Amino acid sequence: MTLRFGTVSNNILDAIGDTPLLHLDGIYAKIEFLNPSGSIKTHIAKYMIERAEREGLLKPGDTIVEATSGNTGNALSMVAAVKGYRMLVVMPEGLSSERVAISRAFGAEVLFCGNFHVNEALARAKQLGEQPGYFCPSQFESEWNVEENREILGPEILAQLPAGCVPDALVLGVGTGGTLIGVGQAFRAVNPQVRLFAMEPSESCTILCGEIASHTIEGISDGFVPGIFQRHASLVNEVLSVSSVDAVTEMKRLARRHGLFCGPSSGAHMLAAQRIRAKFPELKTVVTVFCDEGEKYLHEYFMLPANMARPASASSWFQMPWLYVIASPQYAMAKPGSSCCAWRNALAASGYSNRCNNKVPRRNAVCAAGECVEVGNEMLPRPAMVCMGAVSCAGVPMDRPAHSIPKISTTR
Description:
Blueprint: E1 21-24, E2 27-31, H1 42-54, E3 63-67, H2 71-83, E4 86-93, H3 97-105, E5 109-115, H4 119-129, E6 134-135, H5 143-160, E7 169-173, H6 178-190, E8 195-201, H7 206-209, H8 227-232, E9 238-242, H9 244-258, H10 264-279, E10 286-290, H11 298-301, E11 324-326, H12 340-349, E12 368-369, E13 372-375, E14 378-381, E15 385-387
Parallel strand pairs: 2-10, 3-4, 3-6, 4-5, 7-8, 7-10, 8-9
Antiparallel strand pairs: 1-2, 11-15, 12-13, 13-14
Helix pairs in contact: 1-2, 1-5, 2-3, 5-6, 9-10
C-alpha cells in the first residue's frame, strides 16, 4: 500500500504540499485548497518563516505581522501557532468573515485597516515590522515568495504531469504575483516557450489599465500592482480579465459538477484557462491552480437559514452572489442602483447591524417600496427588505434573534 504519510508526522506543517493535479475539462488544475489552513498560501507562509528563522530575523518571543486579504493571514497564523510565535494579521474590512475567523481560531490578533483593498494594511504592517520584536514577511515584495514557488511548487506540478508532457501555458490571477512568476520560472526551465497569462477581475483591471474598484474575486487585485509583478512583468505574455459574476458562477459549477468546493478565484482561473485554450489551440497543456477552499465563503455565497428550502427551480434572485431578506418594521429606503454604502446607511437608520462588505454590484441594489420589492425579475412580498452583499448577518436586527428572519416566497 502506498501512503502519502508513511509514518507519524512531526506536526501539521508536514501536510503542506503534494496536493492532487487534476485534468478537468481539458485543463490541468492543481488543487491547492487542500493544504492545511485551506489555501495555496501555506507554502510561502512556512517557507518565509523558516527562512527568517535561519537568517536570524525571527526569534522566540517575536511577533509575525503581515498585510493580507485573508489567505496568507490564515496560513501564517497556523504556522505561528505551530512554532509558538505571536501573530498579528493586518487586513482590510469588507472581506469574507470566515477568513477573519480562521486567523483568530489559530490564536492570531486581527487589526483592520482600510476597506477591501490592502493598501492601508500594507503600510501599517510595514511600519510595525520595522519595530523591535516584529517580523514582516512582506509577501507582496519578497523574492522568497518567488523562490518557494520556483523551487518547490513548480517542480511539484511538473512531476505530476503525464510522462513526456511539458506545460504550454500557465494561467493565474495576480495577488502577490509570486505563484505566477515563480511557477512560471520553473516551467520555463523545461519549456522556454511556455506562455504566462495573468488574470484580474474585469471590475478592477489594475494591471491592464490602472483601475481600482471593488470585486468579489478575493485574493487578487488588492488595490495596487505588487512589487513582485512589477519586477518580473517582462516574463508575462498577456493579461486577461474575468468578471466577478462569471467567477462565482463557475465556482458553484465546480462544486456541483466536480465536487470541488473552492473559492471564486478558482472559478476565475478555470474560466481564464479555458478561454486561453480556446483562443490558442496550439497550447495543449494549460495549467492553473485552485487556490482556496469554498468554506472561506460560506456566508457570502452558500448560507441560508436552516429552515429555508431552496426553490425547486432556481429563481433569478437565487443566482446572485448573496441574498438576504429581513423582516423590517420600518422600511429602510435605498433607491434602485444604490451602492452597498447606501444600503448600509439605510439599514443603520432602521436599527439594523451595519456590517456590510461594500461588494454589491450597483446593478443589483434594489428598492423596498410598494407592495413588493423587485429583485432581478422576481417580486418578493412585503414585509421584506433585501440587502445583497451583506456579511456577518448584516441584515439581522441587533435586538432580535437570527431565527426571526422569515422564509421568503418567489411567487409573483
